Amino acid sequence: MTSDEVLRARSATRRFGDFTAVDAVSMAVRPGEVVGLLGANGAGKTTLIRLLLGLLAPTDGAVELLGGPPDRSHRARMGYVPQNLGLYRDLTLAENLAFSAGAYNCAVPDLPAALRDVRDTLVGDLALGAQRQAAFVVALAHRPEALVLDEPTSGVDALARAELWDTIRAQADRGVGVLVTTHYMEEAQHCDRLLLMAGGALVASGSEHDIIGDTRAVAVHTADWARTFAVLNDADIPVILDGTAIRVPDTDPAMIASALSEAGVDAEIKPVPATIEERMLVLARSR
Ligand SMILES: Nc1ncnc2c1ncn2[C@@H]1O[C@H](COP(=O)(O)OP(=O)(O)OP(=O)(O)O)[C@@H](O)[C@H]1O
């Protein structure tokens, strides 16, 4: 551990019985950077976060938070927005803020304009976007040195998502080290660096460009997309259907052409660079 790391895992492993949820993961987050933790459902992201925060003990390996053990005193210097937001739903927004400020021994923070009118509303009655914004206000009130955000933009509209990413970037700009999970792959662009998990392991890291590398995909253009999907699916070829657009990551275009021509499907087949999501699928399959 060097003092310029706010979060650090060294071969951190967590097993539940025979099942390995986090498998020898080593990673770090430094002050001022936004690190995106990506992975499919069940990849182990939340379990890794819980290890880093000391909410779960590693079965093997070690974690450090702000240069020390992830205990209460180190946790007090960081902000955490869990998937379920960690707010008291049967208290008003103002009561949540007062409670949290009391617990962290800091001033009650000002509310952004959008939340001022709902300060006396029970948190459970607020729209999800407002709840997420409120969870940020609570998590930032004590000026944390590290920020861990588990799916912070899940279920909120595009404008609110953009605002939350602005807030995240502003925190990094003031030196906070941020670890953020998301399942919106297009949000990878907001991160300085990415970590990709699959099956509990860290399978790739670096920029989006580094991670995609020279992985290619095949784009299949056809009016008969439903039949094309069925033919490729039946041939056990991993197809991605995005609306009516069909893509197949990491596959020989000739193989797709031959499978479709045998089935009598008329399609235009074009090799294209893979997306981060497609690269992730390839990495997850190889686990
Ligand atoms: N307490 C537990 N006991 C047993 N298995 C667990 C426990 N916590 C997590 N798991 C399992 O570990 C795996 C990883 O779960 P985890 O919640 O870390 O994934 P995730 O990447 O955060 O997924 P999601 O995006 O759905 O939250 C899952 O298969 C999950 O069922």
Automatic annotation (TrEMBL):
SMART domains: AAA
The UniProt record lists the keyword ATP-binding: yes
Alphabetized Pfam families for the sequence: ABC_tran
Membrane-spanning parts: none
Record's keyword terms, sorted: ATP-binding, Nucleotide-binding
Protein name as annotated: ABC transporter ATP-binding protein
GO molecular function, one term: ATP binding
InterPro entries: AAA+_ATPase, ABC_transporter-like_ATP-bd, P-loop_NTPase
Domain ABC transporter positions: 7-224
The keyword Glycosyltransferase appears for this protein: no
Annotated PROSITE patterns: ABC_TRANSPORTER_2 (PS50893)
